[in-house]
Design a protein that fits this description.
This protein has a single domain (39-242), classed as Jelly Rolls. The protein has 3 helices and 14 strands. The chain has helices at residues 4-11, 13-32, 247-267; strands at 39-41, 48-50, 67-69, 90-92, 101-106, 112-117, 126-134, 142-154, 160-166, 173-174, 189-190, 197-205, 215-223, 231-242. The model is unreliable at 1-11, 21-36 and 269-286 (pLDDT under 50). The structure holds calcium ion. Calcium ion binds next to strand 6.
Length: 286
């Protein structure tokens, strides 16, 4: 009976060879198609920062590791979409650029930001994505996120940036506290050196319950409406994770509160009604 599988393999040498090749095939596949990585969150209370200054002044600058941009006009955004991109297609820190693209913006040669400007040849919307991994070894209860929306060009088309998060990179939850709201419109004006406008957003994503090793994806959807686009960017990103109190902490706190109440009750003097002798009132405090 025990020899049956061996006989089977003996009669099917191709099968045995295939089985032996599986580890090699898996290794080859892994090397040929590397998985997307994540920005590691390694400690609670320690901010994870990104200022995009590593982009330098290249028009085709690589985004920071584990940040991506979607192709122009993508409205069904997923982190794993193979059409996503890891480099910018234009840069500007002076002048009056009009081409649409994935912009490496600069207030200077060294202070860079990532964003978009669209055109008749570069469709809106465009999303900026980031992938984080909980490497703290414990559950993350919430994260506080802050960043700046920077405007490098004012123009006549309406524009806004909408913020989302996800735990699977495909199903997104909108968070209004992270939205830009409607940017004002006006005749084309550039803001290099001194931005057209800069707005900070800072808020907390609570009830995340991110288990150790799990992922968090953030997404900024830039809606610039094609032509006559405003030039918008994101800069000075920060994410700080914190825990949720353990249930045992709640139980201990509840137990301590119950004990305090019990002690106070025992310290309270007993009031015993005392019958008054005929013709006399009860003595207060007796
Ligand atoms: Ca910067």
């Amino acid at each position: 009976m025990h020899s049956a599988p061996r006989q089977f393999l003996h009669r099917r040498p191709w099968f045995a060879r295939t089985l032996r090749a599986v580890p090699f095939l898996v290794l080859t596949f892994s090397v040929s198609f590397p998985l997307y990585g994540q920005v590691a969150i390694t400690a609670l209370g320690t901010p994870v920062l990104e200022n995009f200054d590593s982009l330098g002044t290249s028009a085709t600058a690589l985004l920071p590791a584990h940040w991506r941009v979607t192709a122009a006009g993508d409205t069904s955004v997923t982190w794993a979409n193979p059409a996503n991109l890891t480099a910018t297609s234009a840069q500007a820190s002076s002048g009056s650029p009009t081409s649409g693209g994935r912009y490496n913006w600069g207030q200077s040669a060294t202070d860079r930001a990532i964003g978009f400007m669209t055109s008749t040849n570069y469709a809106s919307p465009s999303s900026l994505l980031a992938h984080f991994s909980n490497q703290t070894g414990t559950t993350i209860g919430q994260v506080t996120v802050s960043f700046d929306y920077e405007r490098y060009r004012l123009n006549t088309s309406a524009a806004s940036i909408n913020f989302f998060y996800s735990t699977d990179g495909s199903s997104w939850t909108a968070v209004a506290a992270g939205d830009s709201g409607a940017f004002s419109t006006g005749a084309s004006t550039y803001g290099f050196g001194t931005l057209v406008s800069s707005d900070t957003r800072s808020f907390t994503l609570d009830s995340l319950n991110l288990a150790a090793g799990s992922s968090l994806f953030l997404r900024w959807a830039f809606v610039t409406n094609g032509s006559n686009s405003q030039g918008l960017g994101l800069d000075n990103f920060s994410l700080t994770a914190s825990a949720i109190p353990e249930p045992s902490t709640y139980a201990a706190a509840a137990g301590a509160a119950a004990l305090v109440i019990a002690v106070r009750r025992r310290r309270r003097p007993l009031t015993v009604p005392v019958a008054s002798p005929p013709g006399r009132s009860p003595t207060p405090g007796a």
